[in-house]
Specification:
single chain, about 220 residues, alpha/beta, 4-stranded antiparallel β-sheet, 11 strands, elongated
Length: about 220
């Protein structure tokens, strides 16, 4: 699941970015409304977490703008504003749920899960990705190859989801580090190679048709032929 986190407080942003990634979300972050709108125009998100106290505009104004440009994904409002009037206004102006600061991570994750379930289309295909005999269940966070459940860690699932969403396209190590780990670190790190190696063993290990390919000096591609 791809999530856009809009939060300008650095400590909270860093904590949520790490925690949400550990929970299996592919997280993009924005510290202001302008950046958030740009990201929302460039990508499709399954859910958004939006703080109301942004430096360049009120979070509610941002939510209204996102609705105007066609962003229909559910929005969890995160705010220090605790009054009933503030909560009602947030929900009436395009928010789907409201969580006040300080908050418990477990509650935030539960609210995200509930929003995703509530906004899941009736068609099960909307919650699944498939390439050949590899199928990902985005709600259950499960992957199967030829019907067999793959024992993936949360990070491996996020990595596999990114590869599947970009099936047929080459993705570089830097792209993977940015989109899967949500950070930019030294490009010569071997963290991507190690995870790809482990993931390939689980996805392709027992199959006669490998899906994950390495293009030396370039990156990786998941393709069925």
């Amino acid at each position: 699941m791809r999530l856009l986190l809009v939060e300008d407080e650095h400590d909270i942003q860093a904590f949520l970015r790490h925690s949400l990634a550990e929970a299996g979300y592919q997280v993009d972050v924005a510290a202001d409304g302008k950046t958030a709108e740009k990201l929302a125009l460039e990508a499709t998100y399954d859910i958004l977490v939006v703080d109301l106290g942004l430096p360049d505009q009120d979070g509610i104004s941002l939510i209204l703008r996102l609705r105007q440009i066609g962003v229909s994904a559910p929005v969890l409002i995160l705010s220090a504003r605790r009054s009933v009037d503030d909560r009602v206004r947030g929900l009436e102006q395009g928010g789907d749920d409201y969580l006040t600061k300080p908050f418990a991570l477990a509650e935030l994750l539960a609210r995200l899960r509930n929003l995703l379930k509530r906004n899941t289309p009736a068609s099960a295909e909307a919650t699944r990705l498939r390439v050949l005999d590899l199928e990902l269940d985005l709600l259950r966070r499960e992957a199967r190859r030829s019907g067999q459940l793959l024992q993936l860690t949360p990070q491996e699932f996020v990595l596999l989801e990114y590869l599947v969403r970009n099936a047929g396209r080459v993705v570089t190590r830097s792209m993977i580090l940015d989109k899967v780990w949500g950070m930019r670190i030294q490009p010569d790190t071997n963290v991507v190679d190690v995870h790809i190696y482990r993931l390939r063993g689980k996805v392709d290990g027992k199959s006669q048709q490998p899906l994950i390919r390495t293009l030396r000096g370039v990156g990786y591609v998941l393709k069925d032929r």
